[in-house]
Amino acid sequence: xxxxxxxxxxxxxxxxxxxxxxxxxxxxxxxxxxxxxxxxxxxxxxxxxxxxxxxxxxxxxxxxxxxxxxxxxxxxxxxxxxxxxxxxxxxxxxxxxxxxxxxxxxxxxxxxxxxxxxxxxxxxxxxxxxxxxxxxxxxxxxxxxxxxxxxxxxxxxxxxxxxxxxxxxxxxxxxxxxxxxxxxxxxxxxxxxxxxxxxxxxxxxxxxxxxxxxxxxxxxxxxxxxxxxxxxxxxxxxxxxxxxxxxxxxxxxxxxxxxxxxxxxxx
Length: 267
What we know:
Blueprint: H1 5-16, H2 20-30, H3 33-49, H4 57-76, H5 82-85, H6 91-102, H7 116-135, H8 140-155, H9 166-176, H10 181-190, H11 198-205, E1 207-214, E2 220-226, H12 231-244, E3 252-258, E4 263-265
Parallel strand pairs: 2-3
Antiparallel strand pairs: 1-2, 3-4
């Protein structure tokens, strides 16, 4: 069970953004063999069986990285997360919840594509309980709250299920922001004949880079750079609907730039 160079790269980037208990949770997940096997097999099903793009260890780490970057931008802007506003937990707990959710959100791809977010939740429950039992051993109240929030985050990552928390909204957008060329590369190489899902692969291949930084008028600025206009399919059919469905939308600036052309501002 050898980790890829990319997987290790994103693990290091994630850990650099974390301290204290969130860092310990990340290290625990990255060392967990069951989670690693689920991530690896999700890619087997997604790429080899279904001919789709990356839904495995690299993607879930990239989604987690995106989610944490946006979390920190909101926190630095003074935005309170739902658990804090509701006075049931603190921002550290929210960060742990989104971290766990982002790193488990696609494990349902080991079973199916359609409604895989539901299967992900089903498969994740015992793992979530195991993690929370370890890090919140004497706090059943927080275990109950965080498990519920993590499940909301996982169920909501496809924008098919209405979500209400900022935490779930971050996981939704963090997942959608993983659309760079590398995610489409494996399945594009393997495909020999045109098949269902090709437009996603080729539009994703047009996306060169996604930047998540501090916004000018809003806390979060997402800039998508692409080399061909086919990449707009990925923006308008995947990313923008996710942002529009997210409670985080009012805090987002979305800019898209095609090579040698002017920036198009969506938000």
